[in-house]
Every structure is written in C-alpha cells, then in structure tokens.
Design goal:
By secondary structure, the chain is an alpha+beta fold. The chain is built from 6 helices and 5 strands, in the order ααβββαααββα. It has a 5-stranded antiparallel β-sheet with strand order 3-2-1-5-4.
C-alpha cells in the first residue's frame, strides 16, 4: 500500500514538459474563444416567414439574427405555441457562465505556469465537470421551456422538448439546432487538456521506468 501511495505522489509531483504546456496554452485560447463565440444556434422557419429566423446562444446571453430583429418574431411564433417569451434576463446561467469559463481559463494557465501533474489533473477534472454540468443544464432548460406550456393551443401542440441537435417540426414550425463555434472551441480545449494529461502520464511512466533500470 505504501508503494502505491508513493507511486501516486511521485506521479502528482511530476513536472510537465514543454509540449504539455503548449497544449495547455492552446486550451486557454479555446476557452477564450468560447467566451466570445456563440455556443449554440437555432433556426426557425414557419409559414408566413420569408426566411429562417436565427437565435444564437452565447455564454453571456441570447443574440437573434438580423441585428436582433428576429427575436420579436421568434417570440411571436412561441406565443402561438403557448410558450413563455425568450429573454436573456430569464436565464441565470448567463450571469455565472462567463465567470466560470474565465476562471477555467485562469486555472488552465496556472497549471501551465506551475507545471505539475497534480495541477493538470485538477484542471482537467474541473473542466470536464463544468462541461457535463453545462450540457445537463442546457438540456434541462430546453425541456423545461418546452414543457412549461401556458396552454395547449388550437394548433394541437402539447408539451415538447426543442431539439438540442438536428431538426424537429412543432406546430407547423420547423426548428433546427446545432452546436456553434464556441462549443467547438470548448471541445478543442477539452481535447488539448486530454492530450496534455496523456502525454504527461506517458512521460512520467517512461522516466520512472528509466530510473528503475538505473537502480537495478
């Protein structure tokens, strides 16, 4: 058991190499991009509309297409389905998410500067926990929004869940959804983090094996 703890402590104290630090720097840029770019996008088409109405979700709030002019039309379609009005102020996530992403970027940068396996693993755990929590929160919000129907409308629309990805037709309105550039930036940041962990773990095992051969 003591050997196990010694092995774990040795791995946690292992210094990161230059390649791992570069990967962490790239992850920081991915997190900054996620702050600035839309995370998710929706397009809605309906009879009477000349084109698709667009709604982008940023970490800081909602942004509609045509310089915001699409939002009143989207809310008009929502009222026809018995849905509550969409507004950034209705979602508390926009108040804390930018700070969490910014804090994660600082934590990743700290791991790159201090450069120990323990800092890298702490950072990776926090990052992936945040991503899983954000996805769960997003899905829950979509479910709650579609099921908080004010009344079953004359169009025969019952409570529903808008699509997280792909398309769905609800009450004659076609809805398309897909992750956007900010989400892809977060995925890239996660891949950089995972690669840094794998690379550092491999380097630690190689160094330990080399030390063992020297001792033998």
């Amino acid at each position: 058991m003591n050997k196990l703890f010694e092995s774990i402590n040795r791995a946690l104290e292992f210094p990161l190499g230059s390649k791992a630090r570069i990967l962490l720097a790239a992850a920081v840029f991915g997190l900054v991009a996620a702050l600035l770019l839309p995370l998710w996008s929706f397009w809605m088409t309906a009879p009477g509309e000349s084109g698709a109405l667009r709604l982008d979700i940023y970490s800081t709030g909602l942004a509609a297409g045509n310089r915001g002019a699409d939002l009143p039309r989207i809310n008009g379609l929502g009222r026809g389905l018995g849905l509550a009005e969409l507004a950034s102020a209705r979602f508390s996530e926009f108040q804390w998410m930018p700070f969490v992403i910014g804090a994660l970027a600082l934590v990743v940068l700290r791991a790159a500067i201090l450069g120990k396996m323990s800092h890298l693993l702490d950072t990776a755990v926090l990052f992936f926990y945040f991503c899983l929590f954000a996805i769960w929160t997003f899905g829950h919000r979509l479910y709650a929004y579609g099921h908080d129907v004010i009344s079953v409308t004359g169009a025969g629309v019952s409570p529903f869940m808008p699509p997280m990805a792909g398309g769905r037709t609800i009450g004659g309105i076609e809805i398309q959804a897909s992750p956007s550039f900010g989400a892809y930036a977060l995925v890239a940041a996660g891949l950089f983090l995972a690669a840094a962990v794998a690379l550092s773990w491999r380097d630690e095992e190689r160094e330990h094996a080399a030390d063992s051969r020297v001792c033998d």
